[in-house]
Amino acid sequence: MEPPTWYVTASVTLVGMYVTAVLFRSLRTRRCNSTVLLHGKTCIVTGANTGIGLQTALELAKRHARVIMACRDQNKARKAIEYVKSRTENGSLVFRPLDLASHASVKEFCSGILEEEHSLNVLINNAGVMGHPYQLSEDGIEMHMAVNHFSVFLLTNLLLPKLKGNSPSRIVFVSSALHKRGEIDFENLKGKQTKGYANSKLANVYFARELHDRLADSKVDVFTVHPGMVDTELARHSVSNWLWKLLYPLKLLLIKTASQGCQTVVHCAISEELEGKSGGYFGSCVQEPWPDISSCKDTQLKIWKNSKEITGF
Ligand SMILES: NC(=O)c1ccc[n+]([C@@H]2O[C@H](COP(=O)([O-])OP(=O)(O)OC[C@H]3O[C@@H](n4cnc5c(N)ncnc54)[C@H](OP(=O)(O)O)[C@@H]3O)[C@@H](O)[C@H]2O)c1
User: Fold this and answer.
1) Which residue ranges does UniProt annotate as crossing the membrane (predicted)?
2) Which domains does the chain have, with CATH numbers?
């Protein structure tokens, strides 16, 4: 028995809409087109077990890098390494434990890198949390500020000697366009935040800009990326499963896959055309003007001073 005409028409329309949406999304996503090979280069990717970090690790491994997967969960890291290995035989992948909710863990991770790794060429500060329920880290800091900013400040500064020693080298901050909604309350940097994610990403952006200024005489380039809206596990604390499913048509049109979402990160980490062009803010593999809110030297200096005190760096 033949299916009714309405059924055939509806099916063809739905498939057509699906294909158009997927094509639309991939056409408006720029990919990193660098063909550079990374033999002998070591890259750290924090939060490399899933999402943007995992796809970044894959792209770097495809280009023959040694990738240090800095993750807090050994089992997740092992699965991520299997995932990358099943897609490329290039590169070498190493797991090193790192929990950004603990300064002790950050220090241990950095000691391992400084003492045991021969070289370090790229640091990608990717790991982050969003919508985390109120909780203090091991060091008594609200979780967004702890993971997304203070530990990144500590980690980056502790690894700087190695990055300087292996220059030209790069540091990439995976920030967010939501930093524009952030506010820094210097009276309450460690405590409960009203907009924890945005605030922490803004603090992080000020840090990246101040770091760039301080590295002006070096060959360590600093880049900040906003990846756009990407389909990852980032909303695990904030969006319920059924709401996420309802958003599926929107996902097809507007939200990038993690593989698409990592492209600007990879571009900033490896593209030869960016060598020596430190300090930029990037989206869709293109440099963009810094938003006004992230351009204040006084706040940069104040964030640096406070972060130094709070992390004891
Ligand atoms: N997705 C987006 O639309 C979007 C937009 C703008 C910016 N970003 C930024 O992109 C970055 C990557 O996020 P994503 O979207 O790929 O999210 P994701 O899939 O949730 O990945 C986040 C990664 O960070 C790790 N992480 C979280 N807390 C950690 C901790 N205490 N110590 C060490 N690692 C920790 C996670 O490890 P576990 O798996 O063990 O939790 C995971 O590997 C984040 O900085 C995020 O702010 C994302």
Assistant:
1) 6-24
2) 35-311 (3.40.50.720)
